């Protein structure tokens, strides 16, 4: 029976426990497993290599992304690091020009030490992507919507161009989740997530995922997952399964609220620019509409010069100034000094991550309360 994604969120993966009839997958809080004799195990040996609770989660995320193989990690960056470990010295990646600062940091300060290099490209410009696909390039790494400027990249167009030249396409799908966007269906080869965000949804667990369809790639990733060891523990795997069950209802409210907040900000006299792919004024509106089931709930915006950004953050009462995003509560941050501080200022300035940029993760509170709090903070920030 083919399930709608709202049913798949609840019944996908390994549904319940056949041994006891428990409707939830148990937490197998164990590091090792009894073997019946030399070379005679019951499918499990050691929990870094495999754990039944984690396996249920890995099957679930694969099902949701319409993939064949899923892997769960202790963080989004552990997942990204494992993907980057597929490459060898001399390889090069084409990378979206505004991506999560942690991704840039590990490329620039870790993998560059192993002669795995990168080129920053506006991946929403297909001609720019084509021009960047030189022989040493092995993959294109994109976020769409990108963090923090919500730039939209046409996944199918990039995949078509990359595959013509024998390159892989990696997509960070954190902002939209498989509820709103499924990159493998659009031609991507590898999907990564920070499960800490919308998938978990309650700001109480850190996790990461990789999903692929190709068995050869999956086998290599499983080897790296076990060899590097940045795996998700059984209790956190349980929390992720629990969080994912409500992803649909949460994302529906997130998107509903975000669209109202974005339209309000766009009409606000103090706001000079709003970045949100759900607005008709967004350059990526049509592409995002074509390849997703919704624009997500991340908004970035800038205030006019007569407003003090630091005072804006001080003036908030309901919306919380904090790292991260995607929780049920509304969160706000200053990308230039927080999430993207690892990116050199000249690069931030070039792509538009200004000192005045504010990134808002719209939660599922009453939308009028969110808007009232933002308006009050803007008024407080007037110089």
Radius of gyration: 21 Å
Distance between the termini: 60 Å
Give the strand tally.
Answer: 12
Reported CATH architecture of the largest domain: 3-Layer(aba) Sandwich
Q: CATH homologous superfamily of the largest domain, by name?
A: Type I PLP-dependent aspartate aminotransferase-like (Major domain)
Strand order of the largest sheet: 1-7-6-5-4-2-3
Overview of the molecule:
By secondary structure, this protein is α/β, with parallel strands linked by helices. It folds into two domains: 224 residues, Aspartate Aminotransferase, domain 2 (3-Layer(aba) Sandwich); 133 residues, Aspartate Aminotransferase, domain 1 (Alpha-Beta Complex). Helix content is 37%, strand content 15%. It contains 14 helices and twelve strands. A seven-stranded mixed β-sheet has the order 1-7-6-5-4-2-3, sandwiched between helices. Strands 8-9-12-11-10 form a five-stranded mixed β-sheet, with helices on one face. Strand 5, helix 7 and strand 6 form a beta-alpha-beta unit. Helix 3 packs parallel to helix 4 and helix 12 packs across helix 14. The longest helix has 21 residues. It is globular. The model has no long low-confidence stretch (mean pLDDT 96).
């Amino acid at each position: 029976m083919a399930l709608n994604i709202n049913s798949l969120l609840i019944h996908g993966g390994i549904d319940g426990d056949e041994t006891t009839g428990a409707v939830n997958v148990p937490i197998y809080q164990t590091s090792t497993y009894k073997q019946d004799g030399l070379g005679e195990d019951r499918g499990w040996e050691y929990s870094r290599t495999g754990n039944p609770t984690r396996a249920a989660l890995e099957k679930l995320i694969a099902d949701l992304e319409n993939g064949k193989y899923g892997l769960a990690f202790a963080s989004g960056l552990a997942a990204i690091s494992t993907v980057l470990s597929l490459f060898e010295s001399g390889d090069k990646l084409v990378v979206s020009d505004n991506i999560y600062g942690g991704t840039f940091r590990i490329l620039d300060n870790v993998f560059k030490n192993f002669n795995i290099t990168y080129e920053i490209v506006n991946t929403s410009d297909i001609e720019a992507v084509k021009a960047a696909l030189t022989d040493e390039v092995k993959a294109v790494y994109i976020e769409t919507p990108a963090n923090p400027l919500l730039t939209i990249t046409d996944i199918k167009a990039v995949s078509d161009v990359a595959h013509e030249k024998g390159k892989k396409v990696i997509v960070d799908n954190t902002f939209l989740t498989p509820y709103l966007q499924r990159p493998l269906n659009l031609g991507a080869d590898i999907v990564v997530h920070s499960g800490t965000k919308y998938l978990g949804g309650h700001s109480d667990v850190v996790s990461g995922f990789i999903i692929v369809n190709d068995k050869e790639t999956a086998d290599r990733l499983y080897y790296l997952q076990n060899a590097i060891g940045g795996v998700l523990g059984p209790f956190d795997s349980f929390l992720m399964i629990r969080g994912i069950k409500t992803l649909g209802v949460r994302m529906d409210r997130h998107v509903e609220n975000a669209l109202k907040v974005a339209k309000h900000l766009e009409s606000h006299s103090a706001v000079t620019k709003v970045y949100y792919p759900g607005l008709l004024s967004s350059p990526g509106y049509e592409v995002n509409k074509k390849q997703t089931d919704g624009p997500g709930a991340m908004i970035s915006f800038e205030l006019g010069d007569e407003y003090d950004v630091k005072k804006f953050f001080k003036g908030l009462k309901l919306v919380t100034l904090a790292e991260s995003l995607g929780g049920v509560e509304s969160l706000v941050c200053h990308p230039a000094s927080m999430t993207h501080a690892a990116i050199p200022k000249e690069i931030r300035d070039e792509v538009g991550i200004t000192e005045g940029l504010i990134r808002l993760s719209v939660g599922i509170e009453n939308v009028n309360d969110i808007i009232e709090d933002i308006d009050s903070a803007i008024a407080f920030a007037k110089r």
